[in-house]
Amino acid sequence: MVKRQRDLGRLVTSVTAGLISGVLTVTMGIAFAALIFSGPLSEFISRGISLILLSALIIGIFVAWTSSYEGTVARPHEIPAAILALIAGIITSKMPPTAPAEETFITVVAAIAVTSVITGLFFLALGTFKAGNLIRFIPYPVIGGFLAGTGLLLVKGALGVMTNKAVSYSSLTSLTQPDVAVKWLSGLALAMILFGFVRRWNHYMVMPVWLVVSVGLFYLIVLIVGAPIDDVRAQGWLTGSLHETGFEIPLSPAALTRIDWGLILTQADRIGTILILSCISLLLNASGLELVVRREIDLNRELKSVGVANILAGSGGGAVGIHSLSLSALGYTMGTSSRLIGIFSALVCGSILFFGGSLLSYFPKPVMGGVLLFLGFSFLYQWLYESWFKLPRIDCVLIWLILIIIGGFGFLEGVGVGILVAVVIFVYNYSRVSVVKQALSGVHYHSNVDRTLEQQQMLSEKGDALYILKLQGFIFFGTANNLHDKISVRATAANQPPLLYATLDFRFVNGIDSSAANSFAKMKIYAESHDYVLIFTGLSATLLNQFTRGGFPLEENAHFRIFPDLDRAVEWCENQILILESAHVFGEEQRLDDQLRVFFTDPEKMLRFKQYLEKRQVPMGYYLIHQGDPPHSLYFLESGKITVQMQNDQGQIVRLRTGGPGTVVGELGLYLRSPSTASVITEQESVFYRLTAVALTTMEEKDLEIAAAFHKFMVHRLGQRLIYTNRSLKALMD
Q1: Number of CB atoms found within 10 A of residue 618's CB
Q2: Residue 385 carries which DSSP code?
Q3: pLDDT for res 245
Q4: What mean pLDDT is reported for the chain?
């Protein structure tokens, strides 16, 4: 019993929400039809209303049934309606003077139908390929300028609906004539009242109440004045009936031959604008609805749903329709979410279309104009006033600029200039974003090569000759030029040592454009003229291809080198610095006795320690340790060269360290008793001493004094390595 009462309550609430939504959809549909079929097309307004209501019926039912949110209400939308009115006006003005009015009407309806079908196919494609989010890459201020321009078109259209005159800047004086001014001023007063109430109380019942009161007030004035209804209609205060000529689908097979398809084709750019703006509006409304109902909505499913609905509506000559955020949120606000809301809303439109058309002949034009003015004022208020307090000033100026150009020259001109200016602003702002992730010098950043204390000290003193720039992001001509300037400043700095090596690491760069390749070519010439080596590292196959296609020569010479990674490049630079300073790149043979003398001052103790070691000589390519092996030995390198390398999850070999005489490896595995995390391989014939895990255990059991001295030696070595690593980390974090 309780469940039946609850279900009945939900049904009543859903029907109520659907009826309210339907009444509002009919009201706005009438206003949109009056907007599109105004001026010379005003004699066809009743047939235009039929088409808009047919769209509302088809789109409303289909979207309500297939949307991912049960309470979705879809209807013909004001943004495409405003641009369709512009298209209708242009087609009307360009039709041959001898063309019958019926032929002009059919061509306009065909343009509307083509727009709806193409828009539906566009939505369907985006949803099918899950590409809906691509539309979000349009700059936000450009969208704001579009919508502000749409608001201006709605205001101009509203004036045309109420006065039955084509409104332009040259005809503004005609609006001051008393018999004309009274019509649009009455609509303006109603719109301002609605706008004020909505701003003060944003409740779903504000507009229905305003609608009833406005229509009632209109007829109260008519009653007080005592004017006959026929006179009121003849003076242009009322619309015509839907059934003056009977309901019909205008795009019959016979009518297709009378359509000026070439004229429709000239409107392709404006139709394209409707595609973009409708898609943006749909995604914004769906995203806003997610926040209202606090649940995720499948945007790609919504695109497919609305896409098919528009194809069906366009097949009958209907206009573009999408989700209504306010009407879709209505049911949730009233405590329910049901597909019945959208279905009943659409059925209200169908009822008026098929059974209640005669009632529309009594609908006041000032109320229609008031609805359009309210929508136009809402757009203008949001994007011209409210945005001033929310967006950066440059974005607000761009919105105003787009609006002024739309008003003075046309919608497409405003859209085009807006996109162009937005691109220029983006390029300028992006060029100010540094592509340099980190700027380092050889003083603090070192290769993974174990150096002797003497070599480390030498590199710390002379490391400023090495300048390292880690790059990131996408590099184009603006950022590449800034990069060139940064290197030039370092190369000519009088308070620093001469620059010998400028290293650019491209590991985190995802692309460059052709103009950037030209800037890098200038860097290469600059390096030759200032006698330093320009080094590229971390170049992916994609970047190598982009450099080649951009005309950048990749051949190495005395002033240009390429290395697979930054570590190899820094190693090469360090080696060159050591050679210039007449230091050995790798230390000469370091006898084990010399390495241990500090901690084993007594020769007898040193001999006792060496009894636990075994000496071996191995060829190049010999594995001392294999990655994953259990811990077994520690190695003292007396001569030769070894590399510590690791194979990552992708199967790539990564160099961790390279060491010469005096290097100790295997100590962590031996101490931690854990499998080896890397392999150790000789790069040339080498001599080493080996301390096995068994020998270490024996030493700790039988000769504690020697074991303590050995552990002290290892603590010292590990401490030095930690200090060295900390310096590098500090340089990376600064």
Answers
A1: 15
A2: I
A3: 46
A4: 85
The sign one gets for the Cα dihedral 397, 403, 407, 410 is positive
Contact by Cβ (8 Å): 627, 676? yes
Q: Are strands 642-647 and 533-537 parallel, antiparallel or unpaired?
A: unpaired
The whole model's pTM is what?
0.64
Could you please report the per-residue DSSP string of 563-580?
ESSHHHHHHHHHHHHHHH
> Helix count (H) and strand count (E) of the chain?
26, 16
Higher model confidence: residue 120 or residue 414? Answer: 120
| Tokens of residue 358, six digits | 């005669």
Residue 635 near residue 665, CB atoms below 8 Å:
yes
Residues 518/551, Cβ–Cβ less than 8 Å = yes
Q: H or E stretch including 687?
A: strand 686-692
In 3D, which of 47, 37, 35 has the Cα closest to residue 78?
Answer: 35
Summarised one tens digit per residue, pLDDT across range 405-427 is 988 887 778 878 888 888 888 87
Q: How far is Cα 220 from Cα 42, in angstroms, rounded to an integer?
A: 26
pLDDT at 354 over 90: no
Closest C-alpha to 310, from 59, 4, 564, 513? 59
CA dist 618 → 7, 183, 691 (Å): 86, 103, 16
Residue 545 has, within 13 A of its CA and on its CB side, a CA count of: 5
Instruction: Please count the CA atoms within 13 angstroms of the CA of 394 that sit on its side-chain side.
Output: 9
**Cβ atoms of residues 686 and 639 within 8 Å:** yes
Q: Is 215 exposed, middle or buried (0-12, 13-18, 19+ CB in 10 A)?
A: middle
Q: Which domains does the chain have, with CATH numbers?
A: 10-359+367-426 (no CATH), 434-580 (3.30.750.24), 592-733 (2.60.120.10)
pLDDT in tens, 198-231: 888 877 678 788 888 998 999 999 999 888 888 8
Other Cβ atoms closer than 10 A to 88: 26
- The token pair that represents 631 in the structure block: 């811990």
More confident residue, 20 or 492: 492
Rounded CA-CA distance 314/134 in Å is 25
Q: Which residues contact 511 (CB under 8 A, 6 or more apart)?
A: 474, 475, 542, 543, 546
Paired strand residues for 512 = 475
Which percentage of the chain shows pLDDT scores above 70?
Answer: 92
Rounded Cα gap, residues 587 and 582, in angstroms? 12
The DSSP output letter for 240 is: P
φ and ψ at residue 678, rounded to 5 degrees: -150, 165
Distance CA 293, CA 252 (A): 42
Would you state the pLDDT for residue 734? 47
3-state SS record for 94-156 = HCCCCCCHHHHHHHHHHHHHHHHHHHHHHHHHHHHCCCHHHHHHCCHHHHHHHHHHHHHHHHH
Record the tokens describing residue 211, joined without a space: 């609608």
